[in-house]
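Re: weekly structure request thread

Next one in the queue (294 aa):
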Amino acid sequence: MLENQVVSQVILFLCSVAIVYIVSYAYLSGILAFARKGFKYEVLIVLGIPVLLIPFIDYADFYTRRLIVLETVFNIFVLLLLFSHKINLGENVKRGLKLLFGGWFFLQVGGFIYAQYTKEVYLLMLNSFMLFVGILLFFKDTKGLSAKVTDSSRVLIFGVNEPKLLQVLYLFWISGVLLVEYNSYLPKVIVPILHLSSVVLAMKSGDFFHTRILTASHLMIINAKLLYLYDINYQGYDFARIPDFISVPHVVSFFTYFSLIGCTVTFALLLYSRTRKSQIDPSLSNRGALEQPE
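Done, posted below.
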């Protein structure tokens, strides 16, 4: 009897997680496709929806409010880039926007490092430090490039798409943030799965950071409005809920080390890849060691 109950909980968990992932991935793909239709469409996503929803938001903790503000600032920088592309402004403007994007990321990840230090979650702080260095190296290696918009409407904030290893490093990092540092969602996993679909979509998009922040900020607005995402009884007690025989502390402990090991291995591979490229072509040590074709 107990074995049947365990099996049924696992099946329900896997099926409900699959439903959340598939629906959210399809929805966010639609949001991205809509934004890529043109400048005014991205304005509607970035500014129109928040303006409509924010007055009706009746719950948002400090973390949520801070992220909404920060990610909206990033999206406004993107709108400035799209507008400069639309009216054919010079490269100096786009180089300046690249500096703004770089500064935004360093402040954002630096904020995580500081917050994790004050909370004494030092293993997660190490993850954030590795991400910080990874972005810094990518920024350095794209020196001389400008932020740009491609003919296929991809927004390359550093001039080229982020390398796959940096994307994987981000994936391990965000798993630690969502499932360890901010684990109040657990045992429900709706919110982490929503963000997983956002990251996977970004990894396939060709403009990783733009797609990730665009969809993540949209999810933050939705999360702040739809309180049922925090409700243990939403769609039934067991819907997208970790089975009873798996304790939340064990999940948190597992993802603490999972994210740390994943970040460490990926960071080491990123450094090795960068060193190898510099050895093959010494000119890459000055610029573009991490460049990727569009």
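Confidence is low (pLDDT under 50) at residues 284-294. DSSP finds nine helices and two strands in the chain.
Next request, please.
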